[in-house]
Amino acid sequence: MEPFETERLLVRQFCSSDGDDCFAFNGNEAVVKYIRPVKTRTESDTFLLENLDLYLEGFPYGRMHVSEKISGNFVGIFSLLYLDGEADYHIGYGLIPQAWGKGYGAELVKFGTTIFFERTKHLTLFAITDPANKASEYLLYNFGYQLDGTYQYQEKSLNLFKMSRVAFLEK
Question: What total of structural domains would you count in the chain?
Fold first, then answer.
């Protein structure tokens, strides 16, 4: 995925020197609470390498490093990923506690959705949330995403949201 900027954030591919940032995200139970199990440093380093391999294989999207423009500080992760390996994609983001409450999630959803529809011909972009993560659901509703049912992942039922190209263009 090509890097991009929001008003306050830089979004770029991870690099091998981002191990500390990757672990600050994946090793923090509060951060990954609604995403996946917390990872040890070794597991996080392996996960980082797996994501770097996706870039090398020409995968068109992936997980991206997010930092503040002004300070350069790491604040979280943004992603556009395949949904079950099909032609459908889902948008995602997660922020470390120091970045909570600053509106960064809204910037990432707004700019990420726009970039997805500007740079692709896909008709739909999905988002997946844990039903307990009301803040993320509220954010998605605010940007025009609609609940589209449930999505089963590792024996867990998640909420599936979608944004159609038509709805995006009508906004």
Answer: 1
Interval 55-113: pLDDT, tens: 877 667 889 999 999 999 999 999 999 887 556 899 999 999 999 999 999 999 999 99
Q: State phi, psi for 157 to the nearest 5 degrees.
A: -95, 120
In a domain, 149, yes or no: no
Instruction: Supply φ then ψ for residue 133, to 5 degrees.
Output: -90, 75
How does DSSP assign 12-62, residue by residue? EE--GGGHHHHHHHHT-HHHHTTTS----HHHHHHHHHHHHHHHHTT-S-E
Structure tokens at 171: 């906004």
Could you list the residue range(s) of the whole structural domain that residue 53 is in?
Answer: 4-121
Q: Bridge partners of 128?
A: 160
Encode 78-111: b = buried (16+ Cβ within 10 Å), e = exposed: bbbbebeeeeebbbbbbbbeebeeeebbebbbbb
Compute φ and ψ for 10, nearest 5 degrees.
-110, 130
Query: Cα(168)–Cα(171) distance, rounded to whole angstroms?
Result: 5
